[in-house]
Each structure stands twice: as structure tokens, then as C-alpha cells.
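[Q] Does anyone have a clean C-alpha cell version of this?
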Amino acid sequence: MAKKIVVYTMNYCPYCERAKAMLKQKGLPFEEIRVAEDDDAAWDALEKRSGMKTMPQIWAGDELIGGYTELAAREAQDGLASLK
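[A] Here you go.
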């Protein structure tokens, strides 16, 4: 069974758009959770969970994939088969 993919995004984020487009192109369903720029509590909770201060943050189940750069690296490595 495929892990549930969750993509945390924010408005006006070109890397968020690229990550979502890549997942869609590969036919991988995902849930998008948009975080408001001024939602300090949500940002703090995400940073505590991931150690990242940037968007997007891409999760597959409990595994942190990372951001767009890490997603693109995984796509180059295995075509995102590891997320299916």
C-alpha cells in the first residue's frame, strides 16, 4: 500500500508549484496543506517536526522527503517509484 503523501505549501511559492506538478505528472495523489505566512504556530510545529524552515515540505507517511530539490533528486534516482 502506498504511503500517503502530504505536501505543505505556502502562497507565492514557485518550488511548491514545481513539486505539486511533478507529483501530478507521476500520477501520485497527495494532500496539500497550505500554511499561511503569518501562522507562526503552524510554522513552529512544522520546523520542530522536520527541522526545515522552508517550503514545500513533502512527507510520505512518517518519512520526510524534504523539499522540491530532494523530490527532484529522488525522481532522477528512481522516477519516484519509491513513493508508489
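[Q] Thanks! Anything notable?
[A] DSSP finds three helices and four strands in the chain.
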